[in-house]
Design brief:
The complex is a heterotetramer, with 2 copies of chain A (336 residues) and 2 copies of chain C (284 residues).
Chain A (H helix, E strand, L loop, with lengths): L23 E3 L2 E3 L3 E3 L22 E2 L16 E4 L2 E4 L8 H15 L3 E5 L4 H11 L7 E5 L16 H14 L6 E5 L6 H10 L4 E4 L3 E3 L2 E2 L4 E2 L6 E4 L4 H14 L5 E3 L6 H10 L3 E4 L2 H4 L3 H15 L5 H4 L9 H8 L1
Parallel strand pairs in A: 3-16, 4-7, 7-8, 8-9, 9-10, 10-15, 15-16
Antiparallel strand pairs in A: 1-2, 5-6, 6-14, 11-14, 12-13
Helix pairs in contact in A: 2-3, 3-4, 5-6, 6-8
Chain C lengths: L3 E13 L2 E7 L3 H4 L5 E4 L12 E9 L7 E6 L4 H7 L6 E8 L11 E7 L6 H10 L3 E8 L8 H4 L5 E6 L6 E2 L2 H12 L3 E5 L2 H14 L2 E5 L15 E5 L5 E5 L6 E3 L24
Parallel strand pairs in C: 7-8, 7-11, 8-9, 9-10, 11-12
Antiparallel strand pairs in C: 1-2, 1-6, 2-5, 3-4, 3-6, 4-5, 12-15, 13-14
Helix pairs in contact in C: 5-6
Classes of the chains: A alpha/beta (336), C alpha/beta (284).
The structure holds flavin-adenine dinucleotide (FAD) (2 copies), flavin mononucleotide (2 copies) and FE2/S2 (inorganic) cluster (2 copies).
Chain lengths: 336, 336, 284, 284
Amino acid sequence: MSRALITSGPMGSGLNLPAVDMSTSIASFETPMPVFTASGCAAAGKELDQFFDITQIGGIVTKSVMLNARSGRATPRMAETPSGMLNSIGLQGPGIDAFIENDLAWLRQRGARTVVSIAGGSVEEYGKLAAKLRNVEGISAIEVNISCPNVEDRGQVFACDPNSASQVIQAVKRNSDTRVPIIAKLSPDVTNIVTIAQSVERAGADAVAVINTTLGMVINLDTMRPALAGITGGLSGPAIRPMAVRCVWQIHQALPDLPILGMGGIRNGDDALQFIFAGASAVSVGTVTFNDPSAPMRVQNELEVALAMRGFTTLREAIGYAHRGPDLDEVAEEQE
Amino acid sequence: MSRALITSGPMGSGLNLPAVDMSTSIASFETPMPVFTASGCAAAGKELDQFFDITQIGGIVTKSVMLNARSGRATPRMAETPSGMLNSIGLQGPGIDAFIENDLAWLRQRGARTVVSIAGGSVEEYGKLAAKLRNVEGISAIEVNISCPNVEDRGQVFACDPNSASQVIQAVKRNSDTRVPIIAKLSPDVTNIVTIAQSVERAGADAVAVINTTLGMVINLDTMRPALAGITGGLSGPAIRPMAVRCVWQIHQALPDLPILGMGGIRNGDDALQFIFAGASAVSVGTVTFNDPSAPMRVQNELEVALAMRGFTTLREAIGYAHRGPDLDEVAEEQE
Amino acid sequence: MAPLQLTGQVLDVRRAGMYTVLSLTAPGLAERTKPGHFLNIGIGGDESGLLLRRSFAIYQAQSRGVYGGSVDIVVGVHGKGTQWLVERRRHDNLSIVGPLGKPFTLPKDPANCILVGGGYGTAPLFMLADQLRERGCRVDVIAGAATEEKLFGTLEIKRAASTLTVTTEDGSMGVQGRVTDVLDDIITKTSADVIYACGPMGMLAAVANVAAARGVYAQCSVEESMACGIGVCMTCVLPVIGDDGITRMVRSCVEGPVFRGDRVRWSEVGTVPTDALGAPTEGH
Amino acid sequence: MAPLQLTGQVLDVRRAGMYTVLSLTAPGLAERTKPGHFLNIGIGGDESGLLLRRSFAIYQAQSRGVYGGSVDIVVGVHGKGTQWLVERRRHDNLSIVGPLGKPFTLPKDPANCILVGGGYGTAPLFMLADQLRERGCRVDVIAGAATEEKLFGTLEIKRAASTLTVTTEDGSMGVQGRVTDVLDDIITKTSADVIYACGPMGMLAAVANVAAARGVYAQCSVEESMACGIGVCMTCVLPVIGDDGITRMVRSCVEGPVFRGDRVRWSEVGTVPTDALGAPTEGH
Ligand SMILES: Cc1cc2nc3c(=O)[nH]c(=O)nc-3n(C[C@H](O)[C@H](O)[C@H](O)COP(=O)(O)OP(=O)(O)OC[C@H]3O[C@@H](n4cnc5c(N)ncnc54)[C@H](O)[C@@H]3O)c2cc1C
Ligand SMILES: Cc1cc2nc3c(=O)[nH]c(=O)nc-3n(C[C@H](O)[C@H](O)[C@H](O)COP(=O)(O)OP(=O)(O)OC[C@H]3O[C@@H](n4cnc5c(N)ncnc54)[C@H](O)[C@@H]3O)c2cc1C
Ligand SMILES: Cc1cc2nc3c(=O)[nH]c(=O)nc-3n(C[C@H](O)[C@H](O)[C@H](O)COP(=O)(O)O)c2cc1C
Ligand SMILES: Cc1cc2nc3c(=O)[nH]c(=O)nc-3n(C[C@H](O)[C@H](O)[C@H](O)COP(=O)(O)O)c2cc1C
Ligand code: FES
Ligand code: FES
């Protein structure tokens, strides 16, 4: 790689920096831009389109949709926590048919790249969902949410067991268009996330999305009971970023050819760059969107400046850069 | 429980509140006060004694000590993260003999209740450590750190495998004074923490300490490599509090008779009360001590006020209170 | 019109009883504001551990003036975020998103309106009262709270109202009791056509019940915990009956906060009614 | 004497080139301060996402005066915490812990002393220079930085020094080069007995080397990342040779930040030397 290191300082404000080729790919899905929304943090894109042009970012990852309409859980569904939040939405949504008819149609017409996230209560449901999407136009990739800790049936966290995880991926693969890459979304709540990544890769996943929320809980000190109606909820936001970067690093280390969509607490371009350096090919911005509705666009712009300041001319060169061997000058130093 | 609910407000400032009996126990260890330091966040008490009287809190949990002196890891050993930090100390310490001779002797002479934390690289080492402590005076309990993700040998995270975890506890039990309770300190980095709690209980643990740090990582954007010399580190502080409360809740739910020493991001009395309501019998204050060197004392005082304001006259009544069945008025409401 | 995201400057901070009124520059926002809109404010800057914005009803909106547009909000200290907010000083910057939500619907023809505010819930009723009177409506106001100090703006709102009735639960001001203790009478006296209400959930439920019993059309502005305020997170839902008669868990930030009183299933707020669309079925 | 934990008020904020000098009330702290002590400041209040305190050398300490004791620190903006700090205004409160660390050791008898400061590393040298002169020592100062703007206090420190030599790497002020380019000469000219140094690790290593080569006793104040600053966390260690000749990983916050130049294993800072006490053995 040839790079002229532009150090930060007075000119580090983004002025006069060369443009960076931000294109990247998640398996066969080629995208000109690397920053996506995160499932469940952008609905189906329409609301965010009021704050920035959603066709200018990598794309919209839609809220995980199930086969049938779902009311979700009772409220309270959220609690704020230090540098993060808990949620327990319970996958509220219109069901796949209404989703295709309304949300997906709108996204297609709007010209936004779309990653459809699906969630099921059984291997069969995942298969059916994939089949429903089979001949639908305008889907860049399918993200398979096998890790949501919020589903009503607590036994069913597919992402926590290598076998169930791979069964789901197989069912989705079998039933979906081979040209549409399948991204398995993993949970950090496992003893060894690499094992899960390996098993979904073997089952046919073309990429992984890392990480979903981690299970947490808050006690409401007025009611002296759990703050969420769902008792536990998913922890997200900057609080979990170090955990997410670690998961991306571990998976990229073990499976350097498996594309990773990285996420977890990304707040700015520097945060996004950590994920890229750790091995992510693209990133999603989730919870921070609640703080800043234009966050995905802003993060993408900041990421470009951050790359340019470090002399990168393409995003692709930066993917996994933190895993490189010792730099030449470091080697020289050691030999002294 | 008879309690007169004193609501917060002008008099919620701690004025005119009745004193609360703060005594509690961790298995056979009876303590008049429920707030402890956390291992690795208080050295062996001497430095904090400059900021508050360490005999006034529950006690000091000392930095995990190994059989031999250990240099720990190279620096950088820490990175700040949103509402938390990563550390990768690598269990630097003087070794058990020097620890007993100097640190423990000082603590005994100072009159502080002391929980000795031990860590080993093998089951055998744990056994030897327990044996070394066998006839030493002034030990209120032994905390067995089976969950530190920072040990040099990465394969050896005992806490992540029910078998290794119980082997360690058995070795410690076999070699230690039966009057000194054994607290197994668990890692949250497992698929199911209840399984681990069950296995250490079966192996003879008298209590569990929940939670140790969770594995995280930060990339330094100047060097474009991991920020810590140890690559990954343990994430601690308020960021992980919801995860910690969830672990305490799950274990207390499954094993209501197993005493829990709760910790993870406790910053104030309200935070401590969350742990107590979730099922902890006592709590440790760790990382926040770096922000506020008198935090353990302050948290204990605030916890007493928080209990009194809610009408509790003893801490013991509050342990696990969030698990109670519906209140009478709620039942009435539902029947309407 | 789409909400704006902007940085506003604190123009003025003044105490009003228990509350703090903040005036903020907000170019473009005032022009878009209708009575019942709210805005979202970021707490504590980029390194704050408090990630979520806090929501406040827009109390006043001045689209002209030296500052090229400003808005006022009324803040009651509840927890850490509102505490931080009332500590702001003149010239501090605040991150603002708004106007948000569906505002109150105004009657096309002159009508007799009762405005009911609980606590700081009177805040959005000022602009509403003004606009109703501009349309030739009669406006009667009821302001209620637990105690006198928790009332907001009772002196000022008098000007825009034909009558003002104050209720406090402890009798420290006005009639001792709740707003619903006087509502029935005032409906009769004023031959009310519409009731507008803003305040705690319990009050809204009670008002909606009285309105229903009397056959008066009611609009209630609810307050649910919101993570995003812009419709993307699904945390702020409550069970609402649609035009088709089907109950859905509906986002109060974009489909509310103002709802028709007879459409919200008040007694089931906080639950998912078993007949709601997509409600968990037995054995699931 | 034990460090204090207290809330100080910002008395004054003034720019000094690239740096910001903060004066803080700190009753009791000034009296305890010796040259080389540092203090720790909390960033952003109870809800801040920045949990760790930031460390600053004590630049001035006034034990008397209208405010019953105050201290000054010199802040260079490095990241988020220092940025927040320089945005403070008069009357803001700050949480302070100090004085911390082992200060410089002063010679018992009058001696010829060279004080070397890199960048804001001159800050703790002001008090040191004053106290050395009170003891009849000769004080010569070398202040170095990459460029003129990164120097601190060169005008003021002249007063306390027999000579001041400035070096900048870009030649924008004084001699072009590094402090060690002039040190050797000044040792000769002043027949120096002791060198005191504070600045970046690389500079300290170079100064310690020159001092060792010339047989001059050196004390260096190091700057390591610190989580606690009070000796309880073990994050701030570096390899230091003890009186017994054994190298240990030593806490720079309580056993430093001032170390004897010949005791720190400068080239191995950031590593654990294989002969350090308890260093990992082969195959472990
Ligand atoms: C549409 C709408 C309009 C509002 N208008 C006003 C107003 O005009 N004046 C006023 O003083 N308050 C108003 N509130 C309530 C105000 O938003 C809360 O008091 C505030 O969010 C509490 O934040 P906190 O940090 O002080 O409390 P905390 O309890 O520390 O907040 C923790 C979290 O819970 C949320 N939360 C807590 N209480 C409420 C609540 N009552 N409503 C919504 N979210 C809550 C917070 O937003 C935050 O995310 C309004 C709320 C909504 C939804
Ligand atoms: C004993 C001592 C004395 C110091 N004296 C001064 C002084 O007089 N004036 C001055 O401007 N600075 C001084 N520093 C450095 C100052 O502490 C750092 O610049 C500051 O901590 C950086 O914080 P930040 O939030 O701006 O940077 P960030 O990079 O955002 O900080 C992230 C974390 O790394 C730590 N960190 C980063 N850089 C340093 C560093 N150089 N040294 C220690 N910790 C660091 C921070 O404390 C924080 O925990 C001193 C440091 C030490 C240890
Ligand atoms: C309110 C909320 C709802 C979410 N819903 C989903 C979901 O439906 N499907 C999914 O795969 N992830 C869901 N997530 C997880 C996010 O997509 C993301 O993986 C996680 O929050 C970490 O990223 P963040 O910290 O940037 O939010 C949700 C997160 C939040 C906060
Ligand atoms: C710097 C540091 C060192 C630690 N060292 C140890 C240790 O030696 N043994 C141990 O069991 N836990 C250790 N811990 C974990 C804490 O005891 C505690 O379990 C964890 O940090 C969560 O609590 P907290 O968020 O209050 O810090 C350490 C934590 C930190 C931050
Ligand atoms: S608050 Fe997010 S959808 Fe309403
Ligand atoms: S900074 Fe914690 S021991 Fe030195």
